[in-house]
Amino acid sequence: MAAANEGADNALLQGGPRNTPARVLKPFDRGEIKVLLLEGVAETGVELLTKAGYQVEYHVKALPVEQLIEKIAHVHVVGIRSKTQLTAEVLQHAKKLQAIGCFCIGTNQVDLDYAAQKGICVFNSPFSNSRSVAELVMAEVVCLARQIADRVREMHDGNWQKKSAGCREIRSKTLGIVGYGHIGTQLSVMADAMGMKVIFFDVLQIMPLGTAQPMDTLDEVLEQADFVTLHVPDTPETRNMITREELMRMKKGAYLINASRGTVVDIEALAEALRSGHLAGAAVDVYPSEPLANGAGWENPLRGCPNTILTPHIGGSTEEAQYAIGVEVGAALTKFVNTGCTLNAVNFPETDLRPSTTTVETARIINCHRNVPGVLKQINKILSDYNIEKQISDSNGAVAYFMADVVIPNDKTLAQLYMSLSKIDEAINTRILY
């Protein structure tokens, strides 16, 4: 078999012994799949990838760019959190990379378009830590209303300051949620249960939960809410969504909470609104620029602002959330490597092909190619000598993805099929699985 694979990476030309049952899909040699995990990704993800039989290299912290480039040239899967930046400059060195797992909600640390053009499928965990973020925000609402951050700091300084001025209950106050997705809706239910009035704004038409009321514009939320909390992705439309103008629209004495993305709020303008007394407090968990490692020396205009809670991007940093993220992303990566399934990918067509139920021996072929006319015609011409048990094809922007289970005739080899598909000019990468 080694001779038949000459010139091809065995981890791309995947299969198994000729007597492997047709319904068992597994790589030619799982031990040849190399996985690089960075930033101390969840242990559950490490266990899943290790049990799959892959070679797993694990690092607690992010790697310097030079070392990252050196490592990424030889691996098939990379797992990261939010600090590692997989830019086009880094990914151009990834000669064998098949998949990236973002063990977090966001994917803005990855150049998704470039990854797709190179045939690299990207997965994340958009919902696993939504409860953790919602609970943090709910806690911050109470802490801001009671000026807890200032009292704690005073007590640690040996300064006893018992007072009620400016401290309020949250019952009957209005919570304005900007972005009514998985986090926003869970937060809505919590706030409703605690006696708050909930209003929200989202660019999509979403059914309210409980007594929550949708608003037609962002300005309506800013003008009516006692507490404004942001839960939006990082997009061109949301960057600097909250500037001095929006902060001035908020009620005098209102509070702002940002646990979404650091690019959403103008930090300088927020600091000014807090120091001037226009806002009564703020809680910020994300920042335009965040350190790559723990340690002293972090600077930010919000430091020292009154009644301001600053946390180091810990919205989803709970043991429960990390456990769930490890399971979700680890399972998605192993399923992609072993079966070609791209469900829940963020930059690929979402496709899946259940194994054939026939007792005839089949191989699964996977071809990622540029989404231009005529490629499927070329693929089908190559496969005309094979019996196709089932197939599926879909596209996402400039990238198309084709999967098929085929019967290999006695006069053909997997290596021949692999080379024929790889020679298509528009092909980005090709894999063959049993």
Describe the structure.
The protein is 29% helix and 19% strand. It folds into 2 domains: 30-127 and 321-433, NAD(P)-binding Rossmann-like Domain (Rossmann fold); 130-310, Rossmann fold (3-Layer(aba) Sandwich), CATH 3.40.50. Helix 1 (43-51) packs parallel to helix 11 and helix 5 (130-145) crosses helix 7. The two termini are 14 Å apart. The strands form 3 sheets. A 7-stranded parallel beta sheet has the order 8-7-6-9-10-11-12, with helices on both faces. A 5-stranded parallel beta sheet has the order 2-1-3-4-5. It has a 4-stranded antiparallel beta sheet with strand order 14-15-13-16, covered by helices on one side. It has helices at residues 43-51, 65-72, 88-91, 112-117, 130-145, 148-156, 182-193, 218-224, 244-249, 267-275, 319-339, 375-382, 414-422, and strands spanning 34-37, 55-58, 77-80, 99-102, 121-123, 174-178, 197-201, 213-214, 227-230, 254-258, 279-284, 308-310, 363-370, 387-396, 399-407, 427-433. The protein contains 13 helices and 16 strands. The longest helix has 21 residues, at 319-339. The protein has 434 residues and is α/β, with parallel strands linked by helices. Residues 1-8 and 14-27 have low confidence and may be disordered. InterPro entries: ACT-like_dom_sf, Ado_hCys_hydrolase_NAD-bd, D-2-hydroxyacid_DH, D-isomer_2_OHA_DH_cat_dom, D-isomer_DH_CS, D-isomer_DH_CS1, D-isomer_DH_NAD-bd, NAD(P)-bd_dom_sf. Keywords: Amino-acid biosynthesis, NAD, Oxidoreductase. It comes from Caulochytrium protostelioides.
